[in-house]
Write a structure and sequence with these properties.
The complex is a heterodimer.
Chain A (H helix, E strand, L loop, with lengths): L1 E6 L3 H10 L1 E4 L2 E4 L3 H14 L4 E7 L6 E6 L4 E6 L2 E6 L10
Antiparallel strand pairs in A: 1-3, 1-4, 2-3, 4-5, 6-7
Chain B lengths: L13 E6 L2 E6 L2 E5 L5 E3 L5 E6 L3 E3 L1 H9 L3 E5 L5 E5 L7 H12 L1 H16 L9 H23 L18 H23 L16 H11 L3 H11 L4 H15 L2 H14 L31
Parallel strand pairs in B: 1-5, 2-6, 5-7
Antiparallel strand pairs in B: 2-3, 3-4, 7-8
Chain lengths: ~100, ~300
């Protein structure tokens, strides 16, 4: 299972994602691609994200059972808790300092 | 309205998380850590077996209440997981389980059977016949010493025995520090499992007289197949922050060995070896007036 959520991305990227995935809500895509196809799709997002941001999550063999990756600026940033990945929510003025 | 919060089963949880700095509070019903810059990090508390709170954390009343409601054990630890206090789901939620455990511990024959089962599971073979608990403990001590020596040799670690001073952490050598950090992780999830299964951590069979005697009994069964090799492997690499690396590796080994799924059945298996029937409620006792609802959690969880 794979979920991609996009925010503020160009319409051409959204159309592109809809080629392989199902858009169940505005900017929210789901599907069950293979690892290779997932990486291929995520590459399209990296190429086409421009000023927007996106996140991808998929199930894998980690302790939590999933992993995720992000691109672009967002108040929610991934953090590492001894190898377990959680998300920190930055206060509004901290946004510019985010990675 | 949202339905009330309930604990989920131990086997469906992530083993443990260490929290180092920050104010721990509840925001919009979620368990969050807020650092000095105002960055907040959500901790999925209901999906974790045990939270280790390190020096530098402050926990609010509501946060502790939320942890208890979802059946997650909070352990306050010092450096490298030296335990200070624990709370969350206090034991004693199931008197039938506690009485069963006590019945086994108080009956000499049953206790010996449980102890023998513990050694059998631990060393993979039945201990010699007709030995007392004291004699078995002696045999165990020698075997454990040899196991440590073998592990040290296997990973190329210089080993001068299991030596540590809980009051003065820095005097330990690297292998002992790694081993202490690794066992602290194991004890945390073992205590969470014992409480979730409805038993008392203090009523031990091999170990006795300590608040966590039964935790040590159960943890020892799996120690040498899970965390001990991990500790030696990391000690051999002598990393910058051995404790951090050990925790990470412990979580990996807990996941790979599916320990959280196996540990409650293991507890039941050990106690069943005692050969006693669980006690029936006496005739004159009164059952609960309001029936307990079924939950997703384990029997020791308060739903």
């Amino acid at each position: 299972m794979l979920v991609i959520v996009t925010e503020n991305v160009p319409p051409r990227l959204r159309g592109r994602l809809a080629v392989w995935l199902l858009e169940i809500r505005a900017g929210v895509y789901i599907g069950t691609p293979s690892k290779r196809l997932r990486e291929f799709i995520w590459n399209q997002v990296l190429e086409g994200v421009e000023d927007g941001n996106a996140v991808i999550a998929w199930n894998t063999n980690t302790e939590s059972g999933y992993d995720f990756a992000t691109v672009g600026k967002n108040r929610r940033v991934p953090v590492d808790f001894d190898g377990l990945r959680l998300v920190s929510f930055l206060p509004p003025d901290e946004q510019s300092k985010g990675p | 309205m949202l339905p009330p919060l309930k604990p989920i089963a131990m086997k469906e949880r992530i083993s443990l998380i260490f929290i180092e700095y920050g104010e721990i509070d509840v925001l919009d019903g979620a368990f969050v850590v807020i650092d000095k810059n105002g960055v907040r990090t959500h901790i999925p508390i209901g999906s974790i077996a045990c939270i280790m709170l390190e020096p530098g954390t402050r926990v609010s009343h509501r946060a502790a209440a939320l942890a208890a409601r979802v059946g997650t054990l909070l352990v306050w630890v010092g450096e490298a997981g030296v335990r200070l206090y624990a709370s969350g789901q206090p034991g004693g939620a199931r008197s039938d389980r506690l009485l069963y455990q006590a019945k086994l511990a108080l009956d000499d024959q049953a206790r010996l059977k449980v102890v023998r089962k513990m050694y059998e599971l631990r060393f993979g073979e039945k201990p010699p016949e007709r030995r007392s608990v004291e004699q078995l403990r002696g045999i165990e001590g020698a075997r454990v010493k040899k196991t440590y020596d073998n592990l040290a040799k296997q990973y190329g670690v210089s080993w001068k025995g299991r030596r540590y001073d809980p009051t003065d952490w820095d005097t330990s050598d690297v292998p002992n520090t790694c081993l202490s950090a690794a066992t602290a992780c194991l004890y945390g999830i073992t205590e969470a499992a014992i409480l979730a299964a409805g038993y008392a951590p203090a009523v031990g069979f091999i170990h006795t007289g300590k608040p966590l005697s039964f935790v040590y009994d159960i943890a020892d069964i799996v120690k040498f197949e899970t965390v001990a090799p991990v500790a030696f492997k990391i000690a051999a690499k002598a990393p910058q922050q051995p404790e951090r690396v050990v925790r990470l590796a412990c979580r990996d080994v807990f996941r790979e060995s599916k320990l959280l799924g196996k540990i409650i059945p293991l507890i039941e298996e050990v106690l069943t070896a005692g050969g006693l029937e669980p006690p029936y409620p006496p005739k004159e006792s009164v059952p609960p007036a309001i029936k307990e609802t079924e939950g997703l959690g384990n029997v020791g969880h308060r739903h």
